[in-house]
Amino acid sequence: MPPAKKRTRSYDPVKTRAAVLTQFRHVRDAVEAFTPVQLDGPTRLGEWTVRDLAAHVAWMLDSVPQLLAAPAPAARELALLDWPSRTASAAGRIDAHTRGIDASDLHGLYARVQDEYEEAVAGAADERLLPLSFGAMTLGDFLVTRTVELVVHTDDLNEATGAGIPYDRQALAACTRLLADALAAKAPGGAVEVRVPPYAVVQCVEGPRHTRGTPPNVVETDPLTWIRLAAGRVEWAAELDAALVSASGERADLADLLPLMS
């Protein structure tokens, strides 16, 4: 008998909207305090400087009012769990667009983006369809993806500058859960249990299922390490060696399944 189909996780739209705005404000506060030397510094994202990265984060929120201003598509084409795997296909376009952003006045850019975002989403329904380049998606789902963009790039900024930008708890939770669920969708099954306390537990990978007690194959890590693995910022083997990931059982090797996005 085939296993029961897993229910797709739901997200509280009110909490998601608050998380997106809160995390953006955290980044804005940090960016506005960066010195010119910091802004010209390197990041772990290839040739991008901190200024490029800051401009990219602004665009990640600015995309919401831009998409809301476009005509709504006729039908939904992209499910939330499909989004992480589609990001890699847009890497070249994203890089080109980011480099074309006028980031000479980041204070003004962030102020405009926040104002236009708040105004645009205030009267928009979560079911409103947005015309993303790789498929129509609901506003509610798209805002969950904004928590991923904001948390991942907050971590990038912290790594580049040591700024210690805080992570909104709800944004961190949504980001962790979406990427954990994306892993389970990519490798369906019940042979491995992946634990990212306190936010997510998922089962994945084909093979014998466990029904009670401690499963034979377990992976456990903290939220930021999981997010870095899923986003391709760190390598599986290196995090194992550093004891930031624990993996027990012959099937508990996720190296071939990561990253989930890049």
3D architecture notes:
The protein is α+β, with helices and mostly antiparallel strands and 262 residues long. It is built from ten helices and six strands, in the order ααααααββααβββααβ. The chain has helices at 13-33, 36-39, 50-69, 83-86, 91-99, 106-122, 139-161, 169-186, 223-230, 236-241; strands at 129-132, 135-138, 192-196, 200-204, 218-221, 245-248. Strands 4-3-5-6 form a four-stranded mixed sheet. Strands 1-2 form a two-stranded antiparallel sheet. A hairpin with a 2-residue loop joins β1 and β2 (135-138). α1 (13-33) packs antiparallel against α3 (50-69). The chain is globular, with a radius of gyration of 19 Å. The chain starts with 12 loop residues before the first helix and ends in a 14-residue tail after the last strand. The mean pLDDT is 94.
Largest sheet: 4 strands, mixed
Q: Strands across the major sheet, in which order?
A: 4-3-5-6
Shape: globular
Our measurement of the CA-to-CA distance between the termini, rounded to an integer number of angstroms, reads: 36 Å
Can you write the helix and strand succession as a string? HHHHHHEEHHEEEHHE
Q: State mean pLDDT (0 to 100 scale).
A: 94
Rg, Å, rounded: 19 Å
Uncertain runs are none
What is the number of E strands? 6
Report the sheet-strand fraction: 5-15%
| Fraction of helical residues | 40-55%
Number of helices: 10
Structural category is alpha+beta
Briefly summarize what is shown.
The protein contains ten helices and six strands.
